Amino acid sequence: MISRKMEGLVKGSSVIRAMFEEGRQMAEKYGAENVFDFSLGNPNVPAPDEVNAAMIDIIKNTDSVKLHGYMSNAGHTEVRLAIADSLNKKFGTDYDENCIIMTVGAAGGLNVALKAILDPGDEVIAFAPYFGEYNNYVSNFDGKIVSITPDTQTFQPNLSEFEQKISNRTKCVIVNSPNNPTGVIYSEETLRRMGAILEKKQSEYGTVIYLITDEPYRELAYDGASVPWVPKFYKNTIVGYSYSKSLSLPGERIGYLVIPKGADGAEELVSACSVATRILGFVNAPSIMQLVIGKCLDASTDVSYYDRNRNTLYEGLTSLGFTCTKPEGAFYLFMKSPLDDEKEFVNIAKKYHLLLVPGSTFMCPGYVRIAYCVSYDTVVNSLPMFKKLAGEVL
Amino acid sequence: MISRKMEGLVKGSSVIRAMFEEGRQMAEKYGAENVFDFSLGNPNVPAPDEVNAAMIDIIKNTDSVKLHGYMSNAGHTEVRLAIADSLNKKFGTDYDENCIIMTVGAAGGLNVALKAILDPGDEVIAFAPYFGEYNNYVSNFDGKIVSITPDTQTFQPNLSEFEQKISNRTKCVIVNSPNNPTGVIYSEETLRRMGAILEKKQSEYGTVIYLITDEPYRELAYDGASVPWVPKFYKNTIVGYSYSKSLSLPGERIGYLVIPKGADGAEELVSACSVATRILGFVNAPSIMQLVIGKCLDASTDVSYYDRNRNTLYEGLTSLGFTCTKPEGAFYLFMKSPLDDEKEFVNIAKKYHLLLVPGSTFMCPGYVRIAYCVSYDTVVNSLPMFKKLAGEVL
Lengths: 394, 394
What we know:
Two copies of one chain form a homodimer.
Chain A: H1 4-12, H2 15-30, E1 36-37, H3 49-61, H4 64-68, H5 77-91, E2 100-103, H6 105-117, E3 123-127, H7 133-140, E4 144-148, H8 159-165, E5 170-175, H9 188-205, E6 210-214, E7 237-242, E8 255-258, H10 266-279, H11 287-295, H12 303-319, E9 324-325, E10 332-336, H13 342-351, E11 354-355, E12 357-358, E13 367-371, H14 376-393
Parallel strand pairs in A: 1-11, 3-4, 3-5, 5-6, 6-7
Antiparallel strand pairs in A: 2-8, 7-8, 9-10, 10-13, 12-13
């Protein structure tokens, strides 16, 4: 009774989401303090105070029809202009309100961008490990995902394989840095080489290849690391941003797309994204959240909170003998599974009430993802459980 | 550089939305008070006071992580339960939280439901005149829309043509009552006959045919008219609701789907809609708006405001010699175009700063839609302009 495509999806469902539900059930059974749920990227840090203050101020001082009514599908003009100005200050760019389309989070933005550009059979390249939802987003528009195998030494994209796999059907490439699930920041050198490869391939095939950069973690970088601004390295870049993590607003669904003026077909692309926003049923990003963002462009989440979790977890796990990549950004730690089959390892971990996500969900088996956007207590109290787990498997 | 499907859509774009943008430009040029923009269903009535009060209360008294964080893709459990209880009280049904999926407005809900059920080539029946976006929603999932010609006497669905056009590929039927653009409420008699036809055809073909009822205008009914609860007349009904009009919150994108327990494949359908919510990029309906709805189930918009507009406009236009269907609900008036080509009529009306939407947008040429969700002054001051228009065309 449901569609054939959905039948498979319902059966597979999202491993991460299924674990989220499982975690809730375990918490009810054993008490929340006895369950160490590292499964979902749901920030445990409250939104900055400015957010709720701005929200109340806006509610009290904005005409209701303006506040809650329709606006252009691309969003409130003054908010888009404020975001463009803010990006211009940070990155020395020349964006205006027409470069910005407000979206229902980054997930909404990616779907809008893919709807705008993909014809059936078009190829979309992604670098493993990557967020498994990309597979579904691409499939929504009958695109074909082409996965590049991971470089497990650095978790920087494998550019030689990338170059080989670009074809005349390659319509776009998706990158995500700081990366989910590895926490790695793609370096300037990586992006420069990637841009050069794309330029070369565009000339070779006479095509336009868009680089979509999914950046919900842009603001979460540690040890003073800077996250390169991808459009600097390749003009046909589309940026997808979200405030889910940077302002701890994942449930409110607010983000934006940037389509730089200089991108090939920029004007057409902006129109297409606006129409896609409408016909996919988003219509527009939630109005009040747009207005809140317009007032909170300088607000930021408390990165030191995640940093403490990161250090405690990384040191704790490596001292127990686990092999981990030290995250440079985001709030995920990617750990090598001591067992060949990481799903078996994940199941054993559940015995100790440790909820981890198998790397195969990210097209990278043999690893697990630990989302440390949890309370510090959860991190600290999980370590004795990880010790027991180490005792069983190492 | 954009997809072939989008090329056509960008060119055609939405006539209604294009007019919305045109109206804004005209308002800047001539002054808002001199432009009579009847183009968009954007309520001019403020949201009820309870809405903003509830919002502030929730912001002040809810833990930030709960308030702004992720929840199940289907939405906050307690809100879904409250909605189910409220429907049960109103309609004597037996719904629980599992029957309700919170959506990004009705547009989001319809896309979710169609994604859940449509295989490429499946047929979706709609009764002209109908909201033109249905064409795009169905096309998003490669369905094929089958349009039933209007009965321009009553604007009730033409059920004899309906019966003939149901095939073994008919996957669903979309109805919308109170209707956009006619304001007609589909009668109990209509729905009873429609249900019987669907039952018969399901048996004949051995298929399941869902009836999707798009109900953003359910609360807007005049002269004591009641809007029948569609699932009473056919068990395989999916209800799509939105608070855009009933609480004047169109920009906030909040609504829900109801999947009644007794519907064929209900459990599977609920799972599929939940997964569709996630993978289409909605992820969940905006969190704060869900919580607000949970507190405002008894709030309602001021229908008398629209009623006054309705009566003034209907009497004004008919006394000028225009032929109109008197609306029973919603906030649209469907008027016969005095010219065969209603697009020409719409263009002439623009000279008098009257913005109307051509009926061909609703698969019903020869008529125009007048959205009277505007200020009373706009209605009153538009009548002298309609008089000049009548002088030119009647």
